[in-house]
Predict the 3D structure of the following.
Amino acid sequence: MATASQVSPHIREKRRRRRAQILSAALRAFREQGYHATTLEHIAERLGVRKTALYHYFPDKEALLYACHLESLAQVHRTVAEARERFTTASEQLAHVIREHVRVMTDTLEGSPLAFETTALAPAHQAEVIASRDAYEHALREMIERGIAAGEFRPVDPKVPVFAILGAINWIARWYRPEGSLHAPELGNQFADHLIHGLACR
Amino acid sequence: MATASQVSPHIREKRRRRRAQILSAALRAFREQGYHATTLEHIAERLGVRKTALYHYFPDKEALLYACHLESLAQVHRTVAEARERFTTASEQLAHVIREHVRVMTDTLEGSPLAFETTALAPAHQAEVIASRDAYEHALREMIERGIAAGEFRPVDPKVPVFAILGAINWIARWYRPEGSLHAPELGNQFADHLIHGLACR
DNA sequence: TAAGAATTCTACTACACGTTCAAATTCTGT
DNA sequence: ACAGAATTTGAACGTGTAGTAGAATTCTTA
């Protein structure tokens, strides 16, 4: 039977890069027009290729969407891990997550799928993505709870500020344009400042 | 030529109510599955009717979307006017707008279209909706600027908190379910508290 | 209760788009 | 330069769905 190791590293790497290009094109198209309004021809057009070429890398349209989701979820989970490694106080950790989440929404746009609806995903993929989002939300909630316990934050139902924070950041996908004047890290700092100050004790 | 006054008030009222029913069904469908994923048959199904019946009230699918947008925009603009009439300080006005915006996102769901993308609208309609959204954003920006001038708020670029506030609130359309535990006005109060406290001077 | 208006239905059309498949082309390693 | 693999293409198919037309039904009013 054929094994993966039979193809040369060079070929594998080339294919990996091509997949990334396709994913990036799909991401941008989905972000601008939404999943359903985006045709495979639109995505292919951005790559100077016909839509059928895409099938060499992804089995169907939904797979493109799913891959976009996984990519962005990995980003924010990595950020949570970083925050826990590098910082101790809840405010510092939360600020880091906010700044980095803003960054992936603006610098690379790779965070955009966090703002996508999950309804277009296949049921199994949808469940997985929702679970991963829940885990992210849970991590933020935990930070806020620790901040409250430590006396950094006012005692509130942590669910509410988590939704507010994620909404504020994910909404960036709607209005942000790379040509505009607002960019991370400045935007990230201001968001972190505003949203965390809203939690802080007087 | 036929004039509107030839049909009886009763008929006009009945038709008006039917339109509202259809719009409400469309709104909920769009909110749950997105515009493109929603078929006219879906909307009709909620009303116990066939899709072709809808064409008696709206010329096409896009008209449904457009009407949804107009409805919700009218709501928030009304709220801004109310805030200016009833309150004087920037914090009070802003708090009122936030609470009411949260309310239309949860109580009636009629605010949901504020969270819809505008790309599915016909160009002319899109331009109009975007202009109306801009006016709403501008009103919020103005409140924040006045709050800064009055010393209520810290001096910041007002654009940033406006985006944060609108994102936090509009994001409600994504996670809010009427069966859940969080509801306006409690949710509205907490959002107003969190988001305005984030602007306040220490 | 009957005429006419309003509403909804059935049957149909047109077309956009996801997907398949085999042929054509380009790339890779020897 | 050649063989074989990787990639892309053109042509075609099937399906889902927005929208149309006219008949059937229900509602309104006098």
Summary: Confidence is low (pLDDT under 50) at residues 1-5 of chain B. Chain B has two domains: 8-58, 62-202. Chain B touches chain A at residues 32-37, 117, 119-120, 156-157, 159-161, 163-172, 174-175, 182, 187, 190-191, 193-200, 202 (CB under 8 Å).
